[in-house]
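Q: What does the assembly look like in three dimensions?
Context provided by user:
Components: two
Sequences:
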Amino acid sequence: MTLSEFFVNYGGIFFAGLGASLAVLLSGVGSAKGIGIVGEATSGLVIEEPEKFGKSLILQLLPGTQGLYGFVIGLFVMAKLNSNMGIAEGLYLFAACLPVGIVGLMSAVYQGRVSAAGISILAKNEDHFFKGVIYAVMVETYALLAFVISIILLNAVNF
Amino acid sequence: MAIVKMSSFSLLAFDSERDKLLGRLQNFGYVHFNNPDESLLEEGLEPVSIPESIGEVDEEISKVKYAIEVLSKYYEKETGIKAMIKGLDTLEFEELEEKAKNIDYIPTYERLRELTLGLDDVNSKSKSLEENRDELLLWKRLRYPIEELDNFKQLEVFMGTIPKKMKASFDDALLSLSLTYVEEISDDKDSSYIYGVTWKEEVDTFNEILRNNGFSRIKLSGTKTPEEEIKLIDDSLDKLKLKGEDILESIKGLSGNLPEFEIVYEYLMNKKLKLMTSENFVTTEKVNLIRGYIPTDKKDAFKSLIDETLEDAYYINIEDAELDDPNVPVLLENSKFNQNFESLTEMYSLPKYNEIDPTPFLTPFYLIFFGMMGADFGYGLIMLIGTFIALKMFNLNDGSRKFLKFFHYLSYSVMAWGLVYGSIFGGIVPSPIKALINPAEEYNSLLVLSIIFGIFHIFYGLAINAYMSIRDGRPLDALYDVGFWFLALLGSIGFLLAMVIDIPLVIKNISLLMMIIGMAGIVLFGARDAKNIGGRLAGGVYELYGISGYIGDFVSYSRLMALGLSGGFIASSINLMAGMAAESGPIGIFFGAIIFIIGQAFNFGLSILSAYVHTIRLTFVEFFGKFYEGGGVRFKQFRSNTKYINLK
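A: Here is the predicted structure of the complete assembly.
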């Protein structure tokens, strides 16, 4: 089988599968990095004030949602996979995965940075800790919009 | 319902009466003092200096703090849920004062101080003994009394360490000596512990060898053989340990006094505040001038309190606070339902005294929007039950109680929207009633609904702005700043709709007319403060450009749809995974159940947090942006913030 034959026969499922992988992969990498950034910032705080661990965990988990969004998209694409898929459908599903993957990757890292900055609010003025959470969640808005568009795209067209 | 009316007062009273007066005022509580007026200081009045007794109070506070710190380690307090059920004691201010005055904590403090010093002493002694012991352990094989080692006539004894790296060359060098005996007693990571005995004649050579090989001498303390010395040390360590335990027992015996110290602490903190407050006053030689604010409805009580305390020796002037004075402190008062939402207003910024309290206005929208974003009957039910149990069982302070009630009310909205969307734990339980909107299919109508909500929200905010202008006697501002925007926005919405869907031509034309009048009005009057006509028109055009901001505002409400959708989809994909696991037999059902519980719990937390935050954003940015500025000064009660009790 030549490469072109392969794409004619299996191109659909290949691209759909690639899309699902990228959705999970990119947003997962972003979340891992975001959570990592906050984790590094938090450890210093917990040395001095271990009782703030619970609250710092909230800040750390915030950049974790992008990975979850990507995972859900991956799952939805998986439910649609079959080996006879046309190449058009495969490419369409691939495209639908891009928003959550790419926005997830970038926004999780930025959200991680904002959360890490929120750690200093937690350290110095615990009463206003929640304002740090709000700043961080604001970043997530765009991951959320990307997620919703990915979902709508997945459901919008039936091949 | 809204911002509490304030009265400002100026009180002249004798300096000698100040302490008594402040005491009574602190009991009264509802007094907010002004910072001293610069102009008065320029006229030759002196600021009142903080009484010297503040030093004593500070010293007392540090003692009490110390005692609390030590005792709280040993005080057996209920923890977790039990502690929450019990909560903090609530005391009236007078009760606190009376209780604190009856507590003589000094003897307990001194006893405690003595005990902790004793404990420190025991600990440091044991530590040095242990160090000693560790050193002796290395020489345990030396079976000779330590004191006799230095008493030989013909021999000299060397004890010490040489680095392991040098051991080989050291051994080599020793071969040249015949009247010297060297033995390695023990070793650790880097050093060998050796002792050597040498005849007087060879001492110098031996010394030379030792010096060349990095020898460092060790002098053992004690008299008997190392082994016997170790035994002696062990005995003293045992005794010290017992003594330490004794002291600890005694400290634990004192821990019952912790609540007393806590009460004294709160009392002292209030006393300190009372003394510090004097800073805000100015004085002549004998007479203090005290200025501040009280809520107007407490005016009579305040007057009679002053009268009672100072008898006839005072002069007071109370008048309604200036509406536009930025120094007037702000206290919010809302209905039992609305006051649970005050925390949102406070989080943004308290209103200025001449503004409006936005709490009652934001409440209905907050309820609707939060529910729309949370939107799951199951999640709402958990919130409802959780907050209900917590409110019934726990003894909470005012702030936490309001916060829980806030979520309690929100839970109804979450449940209602859950039914609208037909979602119970992401659809694992079939909804008893037919869903009005199926979010997965009808996201378009959901988006339209969200934006319609947004239009209402924003127009409502603009209407409040107009109301405030009219209330303050500026009806034209209401027309220019709000009326024209209403026309322009409504007109453009109608006009644009007419292009997309089929509506009668009349409406389209009316819309067009409204839009044109509105926009013209904005261009002509938007920058009416400008000096010349050119600047005014340019400013007006710039104002009109603000319409793009409105487009952004409306689109922002799409998050209402987005959050509702994402929560639902994540919940259903958790169910999907749990279902896949459950298909593979009994163990699968077990894992499926775990996936379901953990996944749903996670999504619950995420949904509620997102709903909370994003509704705040819609309120603060889109809604408050239209009419609310904030920046008021908080009314500070003449009480310190309590830590261990609730003060009424």
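Follow-up: The interface with chain B takes residues 65, 68-69, 71-72, 75-76, 79, 130-131, 133-134, 137-138, 140-141, 144-145, 147-148, 151-152, 155 of chain A (CB under 8 Å).
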